[in-house]
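Quick question, first post here. What does this chain look like in 3D?
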Amino acid sequence: MSDNPQILVQRLHPAAQLPRYAHTGPWGDLAADLAAVSQSTLEPGETVAVSTGLAMAFPADFGGLVEDRSGLAVRGLTTLAGVIDPGYRGEIKVVLTNLAATPHTVFAGDRIAQLRLVRRIEARFELTDTLEKTARDGGGFGSTGA
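> Answer (accepted):
Ran it through. Tokens below.
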């Protein structure tokens, strides 16, 4: 198991760009940028799967999470359904939703999401009748006052 895995990337579209970190080194980015290969206009409330033109081979002990770019999220463009399992070899598409009141156009080459690598673990789930109590216990949404 390597801390710096090699991810094999297949270009499925001539305009596809390799994922890239804007900042590298000890204080570098947590995730690599993913770019669109074609233009798409998202109307308010619309959800579209935007092509990256890339397929990837993750090592068996890694996967990927597709996440928002903060600059787009603040304008209402957010990602959904972003889990890439290590055995998946199809095209990476970014599911974008426009939460803004106005249309948003994504152009070919635009950075549309971030790919964060995660280590895959496989848990054992065991049924129980009770769970140990904690200070937080069942406190969920809004339980901290935020």
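Residues 52 and 61 are 23 Å apart (CA to CA).
Strands lie at 8-11, 32-35, 40-42, 47-57, 62-67, 77-80, 83-84, 91-98, 104-106, 111-119.
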